[in-house]
Write a structure and sequence with these properties.
Layout (H helix, E strand, L loop, with lengths): L3 H20 L2 E6 L14 H7 L7 E3 L5 E3 L2 E8 L2 E6 L13 H11 L15 E6 L2 E5 L19 H6 L15 H4 L7 E7 L3 E6 L13 E6 L3 H10 L4 E3 L6 H5 L4 E16 L20 H10 L2 H8 L4 E3 L22 H10 L7 E7 L6 H13 L4 E7 L1 H8 L9 E6 L6 H8 L21 H12 L3 H17 L3 E14 L2 E2 L14 E2 L1
Parallel strand pairs: 1-10, 1-11, 14-15
Antiparallel strand pairs: 2-3, 4-5, 5-7, 6-7, 8-9, 9-10, 11-17, 12-16, 12-17, 13-17, 18-19
Length: about 525
């Protein structure tokens, strides 16, 4: 029989539990795109990376100002130019209770460079990763690489034992048609854990009670819901159904700001949006030109470039919230970008170039675009299609959700595109990432160079300069090498840079968020009343 005292104690415990539940803070977040896979090596895409960053962590991290800070490594040094030594944090555990050690770093270095990974460039392919002891790891390189760790904030460390136990040693490719255990589950060292994950429906994150670090915000639970429809997403914010949305459609910024209950956080983003061409295949996909590839002719690429009016895209599609660019990188990351000017569109010159190349009546080609990844991405592609029609080019549009888009166009999908739109933020905050990963030749199977070079542009002189950029320690000389490389790509009409888009997040007035220029929505910094 329970005594009155024991009954009182039970009642008090129940009241305390109810109070704790009532005080738990839930933030509801909606994005236009889905979170398909929880495998941190599947898709090198900012929104997905940000989701994963609530559960997983890197050896480094980046602060609110994008400065590199210690993460799972508390410090590092270079005992010699070709050897980096990382000292790991002690007393850190994965959310399943497994201790974090050097074995997990060595395992993650192998896994991130394995076939199927979309993050192979995070760790140099020739680097040897050596465990010194449980909390010390060396990275031995064939040559000096002063920026090796610049994007390790998004090379997330996985548990070796968890991956082995759950048949997840190999990364899940973006083109996978069957989910793996690692794509549906996650165990990391980060501030949150995954309570449930339903791709395309909902993902719930819960605060990790055993997190080694300090969570600055007050969010106990994050409920993520993908809402692809623009008007539905905005209505969800204005009704209070969700607290944060990304992005706010540009045409709805005024409506949100005048709503009384929400506002739009805007700012410059360092992502560059561009168009690219298949310059490898002997015959284009989805084209009426048979037996040859028109994009191998520089005159055709120049014609496409001169047909696209970025100022019209800025004024009519982006409503003024974009910055047209001549380069494949944002000016914040390259101070000599001011030395480059983008020529005005010239449809008449474009028509002549096509005629000179043997296509006086133009030709047909398919174009791959995402519909839910970048700001007004589908509308940008439709605008480009209209501009190209004026010079006789008929585009067969393939505009689809990002999960299907990336599954086709990335390396794991066989670079299945002939003309495409893509956006890129260099994870290093440095030009070398763009020169190496987006624009470098992809013809060496032993190298990760060109891993995201969807069209296969290749110029050996360009790659030679890229290698010099990596090893040059003098900032002035290095910038001049970068400038030479960009000029080569411009002369080759290798790509069609469009603009840097602007950030537009819809936020309840009850919520305070940190908005970084890389557009990662990181909710461990968020607070809600």
């Amino acid at each position: 029989m329970r005594t009155p005292g024991s009954l009182w104690a039970l009642a008090l415990a129940g009241l305390l539990a109810s109070a704790q539940t009532a005080s738990a803070v839930t933030l509801r977040y909606a994005n236009q795109g889905d979170l398909k896979s929880l495998d941190p090596y599947t898709l090198n895409e900012t929104t997905t990376i940000a989701h994963h960053g609530h559960v997983y962590e890197g050896l480094t991290r980046r602060g609110k100002d994008l400065a590199i800070e210690p993460g799972l490594a508390e410090r590092w040094e270079t005992p010699e130019p070709t050897r980096w030594r990382f000292h790991l944090r002690k007393n850190v555990k994965f959310s399943d209770g497994t201790p974090f050690t050097a074995d997990d770093v060595v395992f993650s270095a192998d896994r991130v460079r394995a076939p199927g990974s979309n993050f192979a460039t995070r760790v140099p392919s020739a680097a040897k990763v050596v465990k010194i002891d449980d909390h010390t790891v060396d990275f031995v390189l064939p040559s000096a690489n002063p920026i090796m760790h610049y994007q390790w904030d998004t090379w997330y460390i996985m548990s070796k034992s968890w991956a082995e136990k759950n048949n997840s040693v190999a990364p899940t490719p973006a083109a996978a048609t069957t989910p793996t255990y690692a794509s549906l589950n996650a165990v990391g060292t980060g501030p949150y854990t995954i309570e449930s994950h339903q791709p395309g429906v909902k993902t719930i994150f819960k605060k990790n009670p055993n997190y080694w670090g300090k969570i600055e915000g007050n969010i106990d639970e994050i409920v993520f819901t993908p809402i692809s429809n623009d008007s539905t997403r905005v209505s969800a914010l204005l009704s209070g159904e969700v607290d944060v949305i990304e992005p706010v459609p540009l045409q709805d910024i005024g409506r949100v700001n005048s709503s009384g209950g929400a506002q739009v956080q805007t700012g410059p983003e360092v992502r560059t949006i561009f168009l690219g061409f298949d310059q490898v295949r002997d015959e284009l996909l989805n084209s009426n030109v048979k037996g040859k590839n028109p994009f191998k002719d520089k005159r055709v690429r120049e014609a496409f470039y001169k047909a696209i009016d970025v100022d019209v895209i800025k004024s009519r599609v982006m409503r003024g919230l974009s910055t047209p660019t001549a380069l494949m990188i944002a000016p914040e990351f390259f101070k000599l970008s001011k030395d480059f000017a983008r020529p005005k569109a010239d449809p008449d010159a474009a028509k002549k170039l096509l005629a000179d190349a043997g296509y006086p009546n133009g030709f047909e080609v398919g174009m791959n675009c995402p519909s839910d990844r970048y700001v007004n991405d589908g509308d940008i592609c439709r605008a480009a299609i209209g501009m190209l029609a004026r010079i006789g080019i008929k585009i067969n549009p393939i505009i689809e959700p990002k999960a299907q888009y990336f599954a086709k166009v990335l390396k794991s999908g066989g670079f299945n595109t002939s003309f495409y739109m893509l956006g890129w933020t260099p994870g290093t905050g440095d030009s070398h990432n763009v020169l190496f990963e987006i624009m470098g030749c992809r013809n060496d199977p032993k190298s990760s160079r060109g891993d995201t070079n969807l069209g296969g542009y290749c110029n050996p002189k360009f790659d030679e300069l890229t290698d010099q950029v990596l090893g040059e320690l003098d900032p002035g000389k290095r910038d001049l090498l970068i400038k030479q490389a960009y000029q080569i790509s411009i002369d080759d009409y290798a790509y069609i840079p469009l603009h840097q888009q602007a950030l537009a997040w819809g936020v309840s007035k009850k919520v305070k968020l940190v908005q970084r220029a890389d557009n990662q929505v990181l909710l461990y910094w968020a607070s809600k009343e």
